[in-house]
Design goal:
The complex is a heterodimer. Chain A is built from twelve helices and no strands. Chain A is mainly alpha-helical. Chain A has a domain at 53-202 and 229-249: MetI-like fold (Orthogonal Bundle). The longest helix of chain A has 34 residues, at 43-76. In chain B, α2 packs across α3, α2 packs parallel to α4 (136-148) and α3 packs across α4 (136-148). Chain B contains eight helices and 19 strands. By secondary structure, chain B is an alpha+beta fold. The chains are: A mainly alpha, B alpha+beta.
Chain lengths: 253, 331
């Protein structure tokens, strides 16, 4: 287990700091920060990082604005077609995405969204929808009605109850959804490459050219940078989140 | 002025009539139980009083004010929920402070009232504990403090003791009663436990399929159950088709009910007694339960005198009987 999980990371980390490490040498021939400075000084790589750090938060915010009201409706209101809606969202994710992206690309050409910032945002948004609906929907559904009634009984208006009780209690689930959505947006490469390249590169799409055109150590540095947000976010969120929340999110009730 | 008045309440849910033309008047400062089996409409009634359910017809008056069309946040009632419904992300003190914050009281005022309310239920030492960190009985007291801090005109308790273990239940029951008397607060309590209802209330409303069968003091309820349903529901009763004649059940229209303690066992025949054979003797703690088969039927008897053995031949006399026709008490 440890070898499987940590092995590749260690391998990456060693490469990121090694001046050279190739078979049959057991140890790297020297340590250096050269690759790191190369990444940070290369304007293409820097702009990819900048793009990623701008698009991902915007995608998450747009996703919250679109999906959270839907999640609340699905979680709390029994309406006709509710299950079909949820399963529909799920099944959209079970087909190979590249077909979907190809179809979207033709649409983008006619809408002049190809190679635009908005186009990239929309493509990345698609991958976050499943997280931003299913997990918060389960979180909203899990808030006991009696807790809301007790607040109403205590004199709170419907909106105050939502703000102080419902939303507050669903917050851990929403946080999980935010983290998962951020990572989904941050790591999205296929669609972003199709829509964004060559005008807009993000970190994952930049990886493609990196692997082909740069020394392996530069790719290692870049991979570590790509993994950094995931590690940081999960670390931060761990305090508030238990694994169960994610599992709970994907149950049909 | 009445503490609570229900006038001609009607409620259907999912096409089924739950409450059918229900009237109830509760005096100021009185403690009243709604007692009945599950599905009799007692919780529905309570939820209509609190405002969580809208009425189909009828009116609800709290402390003389018509609140029928007000939301639960606008009604001068406070409820203690069956599962306590404490907010798990707030400490005990924050839970109790919530209604006061909504009202917009100053910090100092809130602190003072929260302390007083928690002191009232003896929980000051737990004011910073979260609901998940304290016992069920303590959670219940927090819920009670949260209700009382609102200084409501009427206190509503939904099966407040059902989640507590038997020993604690008795203590909490007495605490609630004592507090209710001291504060003189009009209280409606929903319960399916007759012992709870009889021991805690000034008056008990026995409910059956959306109607009140009888509304009277616990004493009257037990001694003079107005309907056969109440007689069966409150305490236990020996039920016979027929009438009592010369101390014996004989054929006739109507139903005769005899409480197990209204029967006397003797070794020798006495006036009004009839012979029978003891089938079963069960020690029940403070009394013995004896089942005797007579020619006219089987009698369940609670007694502490002349306790026979199974198989003994004894004589049994009916001391007192209730007679019902069409379910209504005749004599």
């Amino acid at each position: 287990m440890v070898i499987f999980i940590l092995g590749p990371i260690v391998w990456l980390a060693v490469h990121a700091f090694a001046s050279n490490w190739q078979y049959p040498n057991l140890y790297p021939t020297g340590l250096t920060l050269h690759w790191w400075s190369q990444v940070f000084l290369d304007s293409a790589l820097a702009s990819a990082m900048k793009n990623s750090l701008i698009t991902s938060p915007i995608v998450v915010i747009c996703s919250m604005i679109i999906c959270l009201p839907a999640a609340y409706a699905v979680g709390r209101i029994k309406f006709w077609g509710r299950r079909a809606f949820m399963i529909g969202i799920f099944s959209a994710n079970s087909f190979p995405k590249i077909g979907l992206f190809a179809a979207i690309a033709t649409l983008y050409y006619s809408l002049n969204l190809m190679g635009t910032f908005v186009g990239v945002i929309i493509i990345q948004l698609l991958g976050t929808i499943i997280y931003m609906t299913w997990i918060p929907a389960a979180a909203f559904a899990a808030v006991p009605r009696s807790l809301e009634e007790a607040a109403r009984d205590a004199g709170a208006s419907k909106f105050t109850v939502f703000r102080t009780i419902t939303l507050r209690m669903a917050m851990p689930g929403i946080l999980v959804a935010i983290v998962m959505s951020f990572l989904a947006a941050f790591d999205e490469a296929q669609g972003t490459y199709l829509v964004g390249a060559p005008a807009i590169y993000t970190m994952p799409t930049e990886m493609y050219s990196l692997v082909q055109n740069y020394p392996i150590q530069v790719a290692a540095v870049f991979s570590l940078l790509l993994a950094l947000p995931s590690v940081l976010l999960l670390g931060l969120a761990r305090k508030h989140i238990m694994g169960g929340q994610l599992a709970d999110g994907f149950q049909l009730k | 002025m009445m503490g609570l008045e229900l006038r001609g309440l009607k409620k259907s849910l999912g096409g089924r009539v739950i409450i059918d033309n229900l009237d109830l008047s509760v005096a100021n400062g009185e403690m009243v139980s709604l007692l009945g089996p599950s599905g009799c409409g007692k919780t529905t009634t309570l939820r209509m009083i609190a405002g969580f359910l809208e009425v189909d017809a009828g009116a609800i008056l709290l402390a003389g004010k018509d609140v029928t069309n007000l939301g639960p946040d606008k009604r001068p009632s406070a409820m203690v929920f069956q599962n306590y419904a404490l907010w798990p992300h707030m400490s005990a003190a924050k839970n109790v402070a919530y209604p006061l914050k909504i009202k917009g009281l100053s910090k100092a005022e809130i602190n003072e009232k929260v302390e007083a309310a928690l002191a009232l239920v003896n929980l000051l030492h737990h004011k910073n504990s979260r609901p998940g960190q304290i016992s069920g009985g303590e959670q219940q007291r927090v819920a009670l403090a949260r209700a009382l801090v609102q200084e409501p005109d009427i206190l509503l308790l939904d099966e407040p003791l059902s989640n507590l273990d038997a020993k604690l239940r008795e203590k909490v029951r007495e605490d609630i009663r004592e507090l209710q008397r001291r504060l003189g607060i009009t209280t409606v309590i929903v319960t399916h436990d007759q012992e709870e209802a009889l021991s805690i209330s000034d008056r008990v409303a026995v409910m059956n399929s959306g109607k009140i069968e009888q509304f009277s003091t616990p004493r009257e309820l037990y001694l003079l159950p107005e309907t056969e349903y109440v007689a069966n529901f409150i305490g236990s009763i020996n039920r016979f088709e027929g009438v009592l004649q010369n101390g014996e059940i004989t054929a006739g229209s109507g139903v005769t009910g005899v409480r197990p303690e209204d029967l006397q066992i003797t070794q020798e025949p006495i006036e009004g007694s009839h012979p029978g054979v003891v089938e079963l003797v069960i020690p029940r703690g403070h009394f013995f339960e004896v089942v005797v088969a007579r020619r006219d039927g089987k009698f369940r008897i609670f007694t502490n005198e002349n306790i026979p053995l199974a198989g003994d031949s004894v004589h049994v006399r009916v001391k007192k009987a209730l007679y019902y026709q069409d379910g209504k008490l005749i004599a």
